[in-house]
Amino acid sequence: MALAKVFIDGQEGTTGLKIRERFAGRDDITLIRIDENERKNPEARAACINASDFTFLCLPDAAAREAVALRTNPATRILDASTAHRTAPDWAYGFPELAPEFRTRIAEAAQVAVPGCYASGFLALCRPLVRAGVLPPDYPVVCHAVSGYSGAGKKAVAQYEDPNRTPDLDAPRQYALTQRHKHLPEMRMIAGLAFDPVFNPYICDFFCGMAVTVPLHTRLLAKSVTAENIREILAAHYDESRFVRCLPFAGENAADDAAGLGGFIAANNLAGTNRMELVVSGNNERVILTARFDNLGKGASGAAVQCLNIMLGIPEDTGLN
Length: 321
Prior knowledge:
Elements: E1 4-9, H1 14-22, E2 29-32, H2 42-51, E3 54-57, H3 61-70, E4 77-80, E5 92-93, H4 100-108, E6 111-113, H5 117-131, E7 142-148, H6 154-160, E8 173-174, H7 184-191, E9 198-204, E10 210-217, H8 227-237, E11 244-246, E12 276-282, E13 286-293, H9 297-312
Helix pairs in contact: 1-9, 4-9, 5-7
């Protein structure tokens, strides 16, 4: 079997570097390298893209659109980690666990949009409940989230790791204050919601990891359900998933910690993995849904490599164990 030729456009960024790390030791692919001095040269990039079987785009949105325009080889398949194509109808959305048709489309696609990190956690929680008729599309959804600073890019990483950094970086920092976060369009569309959620993200002083939380009032849901019913819906949806699992119901009382979390949900426990854990907590009036995962794993590079494996027709956990 011929080795798959893979090019990473933007291989020096955080996501690109992590994808390269996940290819270490694999003998089924060969990486196409671009000279450091040529990595912003459109002609050199075009040559690499069109020589590849698969090209990963780890670029800002405008550069990702430019890269797609550089493709002239119809056999080159693209996986875009930017925001540029996540709601485009002619791109497969790269979250195979959301539904069998997502996985099928990824397997057959010429171009796959890798989900946003926050959107991955949000969609894992909300889409199955919308599809089950529990979460009405017009529900006034609120989403809170905390992320490690690696998700903010190389410049932010340098700021946080600077020994002379400013004191404000010591505390969690709320952002996206204008409610225009770039993940909102995919959060709304892929979940099947009628309106954008109120989205309240924080960047925090740890390298990687993420917790995305959606609180629900059961009195506003489309069906009469308990917290345990909601957990059962999510658990059944991801029952056969390799990477996403729903933990046991966390319990209504602090002493009833069936999920084994000690009453706390840490955002960085799954750092370095491609796993995602869903936690349902609260009570039958107010339910808290939480997804925790690595923003650089299932939220970025791990998700991209998982999609590549599906496109190659090989076990999707290859290189992700």
